[in-house]
Design brief:
Elements (H helix, E strand, L loop, with lengths): L1 H15 L5 E4 L16 H7 L5 H4 L2 E4 L9 H9 L15 E2 L5 E8 L2 E7 L7 H17 L4 H11 L1
Amino acid sequence: ANQRSVAIGMTSVAAADAGVRFVVSTGDNFYPTGVKGVTDPHFNKTFETPFASPEMREMLWLISAGNHDQWGITGQVQYSLTAAPLTETRLPRSERWYFPKPVYAMEVPVSPRRSARFVVLNSYGRNTPATLKFLQSEMEEALRGGVRGNDAARKAKLAA
């Protein structure tokens, strides 16, 4: 029931503002313990079906993992990487679920001449050293590319 309410609200926002191009999912995508694999019915029940409106169907979803996703994180990543398999309900998977790995960066266009770089992290305890190394690398790259101080804040606001 909650997923349906969220989908209705998000669809209303997307319908009212044609500038909405993508969704950032901040984790805890599937309760209570993630998914079992790419054919898990949770994908259709809580993602594909509720967000199937014309306003939401073509929207890219940048996915990150929360603590409830850790036990099914492999299935979520594989869902992003597998070429449109058919699920038990015989519905083809959409191409909008973007989760190539638990820690990644993605450049997303926010206007014809600008983009925002999203750095997606996994703060689950056992992954912390690798995550921090990745974050440090991304920050160093941003500094080399000239993103500093207020410029970085402005770019973050463009994406919000």
